[in-house]
Amino acid sequence: MDVVVSACLLGEACRYDGGSKPNEAVRQLASRVRVHPVCPETAGGLPVPRPPAEQVGDRVQLRDGTDVTAAFARGAQACALAARNCGASLAVLKARSPSCGVGFVYDGTYSGKLTRGNGVYAQLLEGEGICMVTEEVVESCKPSVEHPVAIVLGTGLGHLSSLVHPVRRIDYHDIDGFPADARPISGHRFEATVGTVDDVPVVVYPGRIHLYQGYSAAEVTALVRHAHRLGCRDIVFACATGAIPGNAHTGLGILTDHLNLTGVNPLVGDASQRGLETPFVDMCDAYSPYLRTIARGVADDLGIAVEEGVYAGVVGPSFETPAEVRMLASLGVSYVGMSTVLEVIAAKALGMNVLGLTLAANYSGDGSVTHQSVLEEAQRNADSFERLVRGILHLL
Ligand code: SF4
Q1: Could you confirm whether domain 143-395 is CATH 3.40.50.300?
Q2: 342 exposed, middle or buried (CB, 10 Å; 0-12, 13-18, 19+)?
Q3: Ligand 1 pocket, 258 CB below 6 A?
């Protein structure tokens, strides 16, 4: 996986004041990918040290009033070309910088105030299809003992829990909000394992309950709130789905977005009871672009075939009619299943970083799917799924 990184985050003394901003999480990521350090400002010929620069309208000026717009543009173009040439899919850029900033930059008053927008380099990268994140995103996704990665496994995928070096086990029935009468169906076990996979702290939930079993939206999202209480910031949802013909193939997939067609929402009701300040949750980028890019990069490096697409969550338990399959296809859906969407809404509301992985075990509407055939397809893909998840954990 090729990753462009702001050189100052790697410890290069290229900042305006002659210093650097080394970041341990970024350095660790850089040590595990093909890293391409860039510094657009020095590439543009600006001296170090110099006064700080900020964007002022459509110009860039040093604090002493010198106009450096041309130098910023020159450096940005050189570094954008470098990113294009190396085929980078991810750029980790220094937050708030007038060149590298993503999402927010200083507002041109040299007062420390921020305004929405990208730095000059990030503006150029925007059209290149490269996922851009700041060092703060890499840090927030970095697992630790205090912040293990939660992994919720769907039908037939529960074997991954056997990889965990366990520290302790938690019976689902001891989890607040999980229904006392819930019993696992075939392919699920109801015991979470806290421990490590390849030294990465994790909490693995090897099964879930569903709306189609008669449980409420609050009950099916109890595991998410439990993971959040345990300190998890990253949460991986793995689910079995049907592929929508024409939009996706069977096999492994990365979820990019979803349609909640269940008719319910876990945020309905008293938000404070769910530990939320507000139920009005922004669902843009609910599936973390950073985690999706990491997953795609790992899959490509390991030669694991994955596709990407939108997931439609339905109640079930009946499978889709041909008319429903045609409707989903016309809506741009790649995968359809009976879980995940409510959990993703709950996780996003709690500020968690979500990765959605799916195993499309059959083509939706092909008339041949059974619970047993889903288990068999999961078994066939078990090795690829395991290597993918381990590869992702290694990069976080
Ligand atoms: Fe760091 Fe980017 Fe500024 Fe260079 S241009 S010092 S890489 S933030």
Answers
A1: no
A2: buried
A3: no
